[in-house]
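Practice problem: predict the structure.
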Amino acid sequence: MHKKRLIAAVAGGMLAAPAAFAQITISGTVKDGFEIYKLGAGNAAAPAASYHYEPRVSDQSSRIIFSGTQDLGGGTRAWFQLDSRFQSDVGGSTQTNTGTTTGINLWAGGNTGVGLAGDWGKLTIGRWDLHYLEFIPIEFGYAGSLQDLLGAGPMAQVNGSVIANGTRTPNVIMWDSANMGGITARVAYSAAFTTNLTGVTSDEGSGKGTNGSKGGALTAAVRYSSGPLGLGASYWTATPETATSSPVGEQRSLRLWGGYTLPMGLKVGLGFDNSRRRVGVAGTNDGDSLTKRNAFMVPLAYNFGSHTAYLTLVKVGKLSGPNAGGPTDSTDATAYALGWEYALSKLATFGVFYAKIDNKANALYTFFSTSSNGATNPAAGESAAQLYTGFSYRF
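Answer:
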């Protein structure tokens, strides 16, 4: 990635000694395109009277990143990263869709933190993407929409309820290991993992009651990459801040993935996700059980010259467990995404993608990050589809 470097004073004035200066890097992505989105009756018990296309120009998480390091001696360095998202379609750094997340200030809304790094790894304090993007090594594309990332969409939901926020987790303390012969590891803790979607605050609990401030999230991941082979595993456990034990919204999730690139340029992947979420008060229905489901994903990518073709297939199994007395039958879904992209240069990419989700009668699965572009989420049993064409420029 091409990076522009600036020299900025981190202490003192413009005439400060050279030791007071640190190197700052500016990088980022501008990613925008045109999409046609549509819901369908699918298997809905009570479909809408009619369904219409939702055409829109939509930004796909464009960002500008400021980062810097300073050598502290002894093999240790201080570092920071400020990752700000902006909307290249309508302008500004405040989300302007019509959903529940309207008005979010996107300044420092991306992976933002500060810490130390060395041969022992990297310490981060801030907010970061955790767990839900662990399938990126096997399904990443430059020019597709966010909705094409099925590993972060239906694969990261329990019947429409997201796991690991589906965005950055706040209040994070995280350690990433150094690369050890192709193996990397991550352990992260969040003092309060849920984010107030109408602002930038979060809830660390009252400190009162039996479990007033005992909530939080813990995640651990290990990955292996060597030549054509990549493997990974990630576990996430999270409890909302509340004065009650076993609260609604409690989460557990395990992700396993592997990918292999054949000499001909074909990359084959396999992803598995077992996620559980408490949707009712413990003690009702089936006692202290959590509602769970299993999901599988098969992503394929074929690179030929400056072209890359993609196909991803997803099967989400039906729910099992209490489900707060709600139905568990016909809660499964299937999804697929296919696309093509062309590398115009090392920095610029153009692509065309199509993705669709088919829900059974009681299923509520939707695409990743529909709140950011204002798309309408499907009701139970409805299908959702998107045709997208766009550009990505990385700097």
